[in-house]
């Protein structure tokens, strides 16, 4: 057996051990470890780099040999039931592990600079390393039981970083929502695993899929039982991969620091659900009802996420709904049996999304110097604009990620998106309509994010035509903002200005005006964003390379006579599951076939450019650049704006049906307990007491009275 396969266990174990040791040292020696926090971050980066090197070696062995290796041993030896634990290496695990580890390393490097001023910096690398280790363990798991264990660890790793700034109520509520939502899905997953074992008698993926297919073919398993048990494992991916209606946790997860958002959206949390469905696809394929459920949920999620993202003001929430929509694309493809396009889309989505979140974090990091240290202002796209002039590297890399998500050739996602749309039309009319229509709002909202953030004039300071009063307002806003790094902000508060007294108040408005007029040249430098340092820019530059090139693995550029593309040869599904590979004969034919989907994306980009382009923003003050934010907008724009700002009203319905409904049931239960249950018990006691008192008055101590009575 090759050495790279035997060492595959290193991929999850190295970051797991490192995070455990660093966390233990922080608990036992808090002061010493706090002073050595940069060394701890370096150890975390080195451990992830070692895991990445093993992943690359494993992947290269798969490219050359394309063999499957599995090693497992009995976890609980028993004659009746014997669950196993171990690791499995095949083409799917090797490709997925490379995405997880490479993105994990780059996000760790980025976070070293992004979080260096935060009071919780010491524990942040522990969360990142443990999250990457849990996802890697899930990827290499050979059976559903082990997958479920690592899924719970992934859920725990998401709960802690999302609530990293737990002193902020919104962050505390977000991590609780993520925990509750994912527990709902994981409970269904556990029931599905047990139900599948009840039918097949095996916990192994390959064996259970074979037995399930055989039982269905022989009509040995009841259709109602099979159709009940088979979709239950899908509830886990519905919650983990933010599928409707359990998607509500993902946008709120942006309350955590930007690096953990990048890791969740690109490599860990959301990829876990798609990976599991791909692993169990042969089992789902035996039941058309299950495949229809998967495809419809994926299509609804794709369309819902794209429409909600149309008018989002928060840059991170806009990217979060983009992730939700693209995961819907992947789930739609899996439900249609398009194994290769779905996983191709997962690979091509990971690196652009890992590029966009650090880019947004750099903008937020820089805008906090200008608009203040509040997420409601620093993450709001309305006051930004023209940032590309001050942050050229971030702007260019963000544009490459935006174009990739829009599906513009030759960037990564154009071919994977085109394959999903083509497969959708081949299967049936409704999925084709959903997949094609979603491409237009996807390109619209992604280019809207880019244009509002990087093009036009810088609106927070009024741009080139900024007046003295606008500069005054920004300086006052910055000066009045008193924040500590432990309250949930990415950078520390600025030094106290001379115009602020020791109590944090102003010496007077005239004092501020004199400061502005006397120090206008010095202060004007802080009124504009600036490029981030090397450790924050370098990961974005590195991620822009796979964003541009990774899509080539799914394209047969050599011609049809040489066989399928590289990805079709690598992504061999389980147990002989196969699909047709209709690859274009050459690059020209590829571009011709992709003209329809690319045209849809260009239409969305054109509409976005007309509304938000630099020409239309020259004369627009802050807040008026977005037609969905205007008070005088038309009914259609108002409908879209309300739909997007209210998140499709789904959270509102959840609040009515679940939160208020459960509270109402709780109040009814309390009243029933107080007046019925306690009433019966207390009534019995009261009646006994009254009867005793009545009997006491009848006792005179005279036998003649008793005889008479």
Describe the 3D structure:
By secondary structure, the protein is an all-alpha fold. Among the domains are: 338-460 and 529-556 and 596-618, no CATH class; 638-695. 69% of the residues lie in helices and 2% in strands. The protein is built from 34 helices and 2 strands. A two-stranded antiparallel ribbon has the order 1-2.
Q: SSE layout and pairings?
A:
Layout: H1 3-6, H2 10-28, H3 30-35, H4 37-65, E1 69-74, E2 84-89, H5 91-114, H6 124-139, H7 144-162, H8 169-200, H9 205-217, H10 223-229, H11 235-240, H12 249-252, H13 258-266, H14 269-279, H15 281-285, H16 288-308, H17 315-335, H18 339-371, H19 375-378, H20 387-390, H21 392-406, H22 413-427, H23 429-454, H24 468-480, H25 509-518, H26 520-524, H27 534-549, H28 566-570, H29 587-593, H30 595-612, H31 614-617, H32 635-645, H33 650-697, H34 703-708
Antiparallel strand pairs: 1-2
Helix pairs in contact: 2-4, 2-6, 4-5, 4-6, 5-6, 5-13, 5-18, 5-27, 6-7, 7-8, 8-9, 13-18, 14-17, 16-17, 16-23, 17-18, 17-22, 17-23, 18-21, 18-22, 18-27, 21-23, 21-27, 22-23, 23-30
Catalytic activity: a plastoquinone + NADH + (n+1) H(+)(in) = a plastoquinol + NAD(+) + n H(+)(out); a plastoquinone + NADPH + (n+1) H(+)(in) = a plastoquinol + NADP(+) + n H(+)(out)
Transmembrane segments: 12-29, 41-60, 92-110, 262-281, 293-311, 318-339, 390-412, 433-451
InterPro entries: NADH_UbQ_OxRdtase_chlpt_su5_C, NADHpl_OxRdtase_5_subgr, ND/Mrp_TM, NU5C-like, Proton_antipo_N
């Amino acid at each position: 057996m090759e050495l790279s396969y035997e060492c595959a266990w290193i991929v999850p174990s190295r970051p797991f051990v490192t995070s455990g040791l660093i966390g233990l040292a922080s608990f036992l020696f808090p002061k010493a470890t706090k002073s050595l926090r940069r060394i701890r971050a370096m150890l975390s980066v080195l451990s992830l780099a070692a895991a990445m090197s093993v992943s690359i070696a494993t992947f290269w062995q798969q490219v050359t040999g394309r063999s499957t290796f599995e090693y497992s041993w009995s976890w609980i030896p028993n004659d009746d039931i014997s669950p196993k634990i171990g690791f499995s290496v095949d083409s799917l695990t090797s490709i997925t592990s490379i995405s997880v580890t490479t993105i994990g390393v780059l996000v760790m490097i980025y976070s070293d600079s992004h979080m260096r001023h935060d009071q919780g910096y010491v524990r942040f690398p522990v969360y990142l390393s443990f999250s990457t280790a849990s996802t890697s363990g899930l990827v290499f798991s050979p059976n559903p039981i082990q997958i479920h264990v690592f899924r719970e660890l992934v859920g725990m790793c998401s709960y802690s970083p999302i609530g990293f700034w737990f002193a902020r109520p919104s962050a505390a509520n977000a991590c609780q929502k993520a925990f509750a939502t994912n527990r709902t899905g994981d409970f269904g997953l556990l029931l599905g695993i047990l139900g599948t074992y009840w039918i097949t008698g095996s916990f192994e993926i390959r064996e259970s899929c074979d037995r399930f297919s055989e039982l269905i073919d022989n009509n040995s398993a009841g259709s109602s039982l099979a159709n009940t048990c088979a979709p239950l494992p899908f509830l886990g991916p519905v919650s983990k991969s933010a599928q409707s209606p359990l998607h509500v946790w993902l946008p709120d997860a942006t309350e955590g620091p930007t690096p953990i958002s990048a890791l969740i959206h690109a490599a860990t949390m959301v990829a876990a659900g798609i990976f599991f469905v791909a692993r169990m696809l042969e089992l789902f394929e035996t039941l058309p009802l299950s495949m229809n459920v998967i495809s419809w949920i994926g299509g609804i999620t794709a369309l819902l996420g794209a429409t909600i993202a149309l008018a989002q003001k928060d840059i991170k929430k806009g990217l979060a709904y983009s992730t939700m929509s693209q995961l819907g694309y992947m789930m739609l493809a899996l439900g249609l049996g398009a194994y290769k396009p779905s996983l191709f889309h997962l690979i091509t989505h990971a690196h652009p999304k890992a590029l966009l979140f650090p880019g947004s974090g750099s903008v937020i990091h820089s805008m906090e110097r200008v608009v203040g240290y509040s997420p409601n202002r620093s993450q709001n796209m309305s006051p930004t604009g023209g940032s590309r002039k001050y942050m050229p590297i971030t702007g260019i890399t963000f544009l490459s990620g935006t174009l990739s998500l829009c599906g513009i050739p030759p960037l990564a996602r154009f071919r994977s998106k085109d394959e999903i749309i083509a497969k959708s039309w081949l299967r049936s009319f409704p999925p084709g309509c959903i997949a094609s229509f979603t491409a237009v709002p996807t390109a619209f909202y992604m280019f809207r994010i880019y244009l509002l953030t990087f093009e036009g004039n810088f609106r927070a300071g009024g741009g080139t035509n900024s007046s003295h009063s606008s500069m005054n307002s920004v300086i006052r806003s910055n000066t009045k903002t008193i924040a500590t790094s432990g309250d949930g902000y990415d950078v520390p508060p600025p030094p106290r200005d001379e115009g602020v007294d020791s109590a944090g108040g102003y010496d007077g408005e005239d004092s501020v005006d004199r400061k502005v007029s006397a120090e206008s040249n010095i202060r004007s430098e802080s009124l504009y964003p600036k490029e981030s340092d090397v450790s924050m820019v370098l990961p974005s530059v590195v991620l822009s390379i796979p964003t541009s090139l990774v899509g080539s693995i799914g394209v047969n550029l050599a011609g049809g006579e040489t066989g399928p593309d590289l990805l079709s040869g690598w992504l061999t599904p389980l147990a002989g599951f196969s699909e047709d590979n209709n690859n274009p004969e050459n690059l020209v034919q590829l571009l011709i076939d992709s003209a329809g989907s690319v045209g849809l994306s260009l239409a969305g980009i054109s509409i976005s450019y007309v509304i938000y382009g630099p020409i239309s923003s020259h004369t627009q003050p802050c807040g008026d650049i977005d037609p969905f934010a205007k008070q005088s907008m038309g009914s259609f724009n108002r409908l879209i704006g309300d739909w997007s700002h209210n998140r499709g009203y789904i959270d509102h319905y959840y609040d009515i049906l679940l939160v208020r409904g459960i509270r109402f049931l709780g109040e009814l239960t309390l009243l029933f307990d107080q007046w019925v249950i306690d009433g019966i018990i207390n009534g019995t006691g009261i009646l006994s007491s009254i009867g005793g008192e009545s009997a006491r008055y009848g006792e005179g101590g005279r036998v003649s009275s008793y005889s008479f009575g």
